[in-house]
Design goal:
By secondary structure, the chain is mainly beta. It has 6 helices and 22 strands. The chain has helices at residues 20-25, 60-66, 100-107, 136-144, 148-151, 209-215, and strands spanning 4-8, 10-18, 34-40, 42-43, 46-47, 49-50, 81-88, 94-96, 114-121, 126-131, 152-156, 162-165, 171-172, 177-184, 190-193, 228-232, 235-242, 247-259, 265-276, 279-282, 286-289, 296-308. The strands form 5 sheets. Strands 1, 6, 16, 17, 18, 19, 20, 21 and 22 form a 9-stranded antiparallel beta sheet that branches. A 6-stranded antiparallel beta sheet has the order 2-3-7-14-9-12, with no helix packed on it. It has a 3-stranded antiparallel beta sheet with strand order 11-10-13. The relative contact order is 0.18.
């Protein structure tokens, strides 16, 4: 059975998108307003095709549904994770995501806990991460009175920073940010504020204030992160988060590294080139190490974001 699944990414145009996915990663993008690269996805709104092996041309959801043994007989009815790269040329809307129970009831979707690894940003760039309201009444009043400067909590960011964004967290990426995002396989977002901007037809995008008020966490609480770095010279491994939804690590590989995986792994090549079990890989590639793989060998100079359950 196939050990490695290479995936063809999908691209989404967004009002806030740009062209960094082409300039930085060399992707062929649909326009200069391309905001999202869905690199590992099996969602109804985006289902990546397999690019190699006996499953070439299949979608990831087809492989998952028909060959669950490749994913350790994962119990989730659909593929549980989604890996993206986001190019925020301008600010994203201020938004919040629901948890599983709310999303399943109201949107027939999973909840959307997510996290961000900052690939690149300009000096002084910030993002919105949380709010300053102490009660739901205060939150509602600030939103109604458009007191965005008082309400929104801004955090300065730098390349290499990591943020965990649990459901219920008010958040937004801001302009000039390139981010790798790992999330539950969900596309449910509730917008709270969109800067009163309009689309190409002169229409404002809809807001979802009622739903947002029902799912927002008040007061905001920063999650406690315990980032663990392990040096196995010449390689370095950094674990950013181990949550009920996913574990996310960064592997910096220099030379040859052998590993015996005990789970299927989702891998994104952020930089460098080399091979995985003899298959050439390079910056911008996405692949899955399936449960059929008993021994994994990475070779080259590689920066990888690795995700698993």
């Amino acid at each position: 059975m196939q050990e490695i699944l290479i995936l063809n990414p999908l691209f989404k145009e967004r009002i806030w998108g740009g062209n960094q996915l082409e300039r930085v990663f060399g992707y062929s993008i649909p326009s200069d307003r391309t905001g999202e690269c869905w690199g590992i996805a099996a969602h109804p709104h985006g289902d990546c095709e397999i690019a190699n092996g006996v499953f070439k041309g299949w979608t990831l959801s087809e492989v998952y549904d028909r060959h669950r043994e490749l994913f350790g007989h994962c119990p989730y009815p659909r593929f549980p994770l989604l890996v993206k790269i986001l190019d925020a040329r301008t600010d994203l809307s201020v938004q919040v995501h629901p948890d599983d129970s709310y999303a399943l009831e109201h949107a027939n979707d999973l909840g959307k806990t997510e996290c961000w690894y900052i690939i690149d940003c300009k000096p002084g760039t910030t993002l919105i991460y949380g709010h300053h309201a102490k009660t739901k009444a205060e939150l509602s009043a600030m939103i109604e009175n458009h007191e965005w400067d008082r309400l929104l909590r801004k955090v300065e960011i730098h390349p290499g920073d990591f943020f965990y964004v649990p459901t219920g967290t008010l958040h937004a990426l801001c302009a000039d940010t390139l981010v790798l995002e790992v999330q539950q396989s969900s596309d449910t977002t509730y917008r709270v504020y969109d800067y009163d901007r309009v689309d190409d037809e002169g229409k404002k995008r809809p807001l979802h204030l009622q739903e947002a008020m029902e799912v927002l966490t008040v007061p905001h609480r920063d999650p406690v992160l315990t980032i663990e770095r392990t040096d196995r010279a010449p390689h370095v491994f950094t674990r950013y988060i181990k949550s009920p939804f996913f574990t996310v690590e960064k592997w910096d590989i220099a030379g040859t590294y052998s590993h015996q995986p005990n789970s299927f792994l989702l891998m994104t090549v952020l930089a460098g080139q080399g091979s995985v079990n003899g298959i050439p890989i390079q910056k911008g590639h996405f692949f899955i190490v399936t449960s059929a793989c008993q021994s994994l060998t990475l070779m080259g100079q590689l920066e990888l974001i690795v995700t698993f359950l």
